Amino acid sequence: MASAVLKVAVAGLSRCSRLTLLRAHSMTAPLHQGIPGSLWKLGRLNHIAIAVPDMEKATALYRDVLGATVSDKVPLPEHGVYTVFVELGNTKLELLHPLGEKSPIAGFLQKNKSGGMHHICIEVDDINAAIADLKAKNIRTLSAEPQIGAHGKPVMFLHPKDCDGVLVELEEA
Asked: What general EC class does the enzyme of this chain belong to (predicted)?
């Protein structure tokens, strides 16, 4: 009965939501219920990225007003951004500001003048296995191969149209 209810509930969800629900279900249900085990594991929330039109003002808000520990501003020219990380204890915020004319954050800020949430980053234990599995499940990626991200680890972005409108970054733990 519970399996039939799950199948009906899953049928109305987007691809990314179905995968999340099925992965959560597979961790709690016995393997013999027909949900195959995975060669990779979804980990913890690494950070939430926020595009900001004024990096100094945003940094001051989190550091001086809210009392958070913040990193130095770091340029990442290969990604077209400046980053500042805000430590929150259980996760981080990544403040993003455009670097260069071809910055993806510049385009985001043209549409969202005040800034806003840009993406979430979730850790995976094996990024190549995760990418292969997700592509087999028709989840599109924004690049052909993983790139090295702000933490010096391989990352891959999943297409927001396949993930309920959310830009999802996977980072190898």
From this structure: isomerase
CA-derived radius of gyration, the chain: 18
Whether 105 and 81 have beta carbons less than 8 Å apart is answered as yes
What is the model's pTM? 0.78
- Structural domains of the chain sorted by starting position, each given as residue range(s) with its CATH number in brackets: 42-172 (3.10.180.10)
Report the DSSP beta bridge partners of residue 119. 49
Q: Are 129 and 39 in contact (CB under 8 A)?
A: yes
Q: Quick check: 9 pLDDT over 50?
A: no
Eight-class DSSP state of 160: G
C-alpha torsion angle, residues 29, 43, 168, 139 (rounded to 10): -50
Q: Give, as one character, the DSSP assignment of residue 161.
A: G
Q: From 2, 16, 8, select the one nearest 157 (Cα to Cα).
A: 16
Among 86, 88, 87, 111, which Cα is nearest to 98's? 111
pLDDT in tens, 121-140: 999 999 999 999 999 999 99
Q: How far is CA 21 from the centre of its chain?
A: 17
